[in-house]
Amino acid sequence: MNLFILKHKMLVLFAATVMLTACGEDAIEEVGIITLDHELYECSKEGGTVEVKVNSPEDWTLKGYSYWAIPSATEGKNGDVITFTVEENLSLQPLKMEYIFVAGNATKPFTIRQTEGEYVEDAITLSENALTIGPDGGTLEATITSSKGWSVNNSSNSWCRISSTKGQSGDKVTWTVDPSYQSLDRKLTFTFTRGYASVSLTITQSKRASTPNDIVLSMESDNVGEEGGTIILAVESALYDWTMSVGTGTWCHIDDAHGGSKDDKNVQFTYTVDPNTTAYARTNTTTFRAGPTTKTFKITQKACPKSPDDIVLSGETFDMPAEGGTVEVVLKSVKYDWTMTTYPPSGWTLDNTTRKGSKDDKDIVFNFTAPINTAKNAKTCNMSFTVGPTTKTVKIVQQPASIK
Q1: pLDDT of 201-243, one tens digit each?
Q2: Domain segments of the chain: what residues?
Q3: Contacts (Cβ under 8 Å, ≥6 apart) of 9
Q4: What is the pLDDT at residue 20?
Q5: Given this structure, which CATH class describes domain 308-398?
Q6: How many Cβ atoms are within 10 Å of 286's Cβ, its own excluded?
């Protein structure tokens, strides 16, 4: 063999070797490597957990989804351990799930098989169906027995809190009950549910007894004359934080009405009572509440007595002839602010539109003018004056037409 042919064969052999080496490297890179320490997990209907160690020179990902077999991670690196949590099988069919671990183009399946569940009738009972506790509060407890997991409603409230809103058969739940300062018992019902079955438990907290010292007032009532005046009330002491609510009315005023704490002593309130110019007695009530106790402070003001000089008029009865004319009514003086109402007959006119005034008014003139009365009946016009406690009525009578 000549030298040229020998060199040519050696070059071809070298090129083939290089190509085979490259192809081998590509194949290894393309295929990749991933292994699991085990590839199958079988469990009973109760479920369970299994750990799987992943070996791969590359980072890996996990493909697949199941609501009943839940992985702790969906990606990782070489040597990581992933945990699968298998829920209880509530169906009557066996379950199977296959997850796929992927590293590069390499894949490795992991299979989970679970035996079928069995039919269990929904049932739930409580060790207690009614619990009671005193006004100081505290803790209560009951044990739940159920065919499967349970839940409870009505768990959101301000004074009785449950330790858990869901759980399993055999669980013990605890209620924490706040102290009650109410004057009535209070109740709360919790309903525990397992599927279609339910059972209720009612907690009753007894009322707190009222005592005279719950809140002490310097007095519980006072009287004031029609001229008005000032009254001072003191909240001397209280066993609880307290509130006050003042009655409505524009004639009785209080400076800075507010509540207080059980540590406050001799908290004073000043009431200012306006003069009473009405014919009626009147009252104003302030309500204090401390714990279970309610007390009231009542102010009673006398009625204003009537007097002949409350209102002075030029007359209270007037005649007007059938031919018509003008009648003058004079409001000479008043002791208090006044109001007047009148509804003249059709055709009559009144020259003064004033309907109210002050106690300083004098000699207010009202002129009524009437046309001829052609009717067979008399016409009447009334004026009603109200001044303080006194009401007076002026009557104007127009005679009927003459009958010939």
Answers
A1: 999 999 999 999 999 999 999 999 999 999 999 999 999 999 9
A2: 1-30, 35-114, 124-205, 212-301, 308-398
A3: none
A4: 43
A5: mainly beta
A6: 20
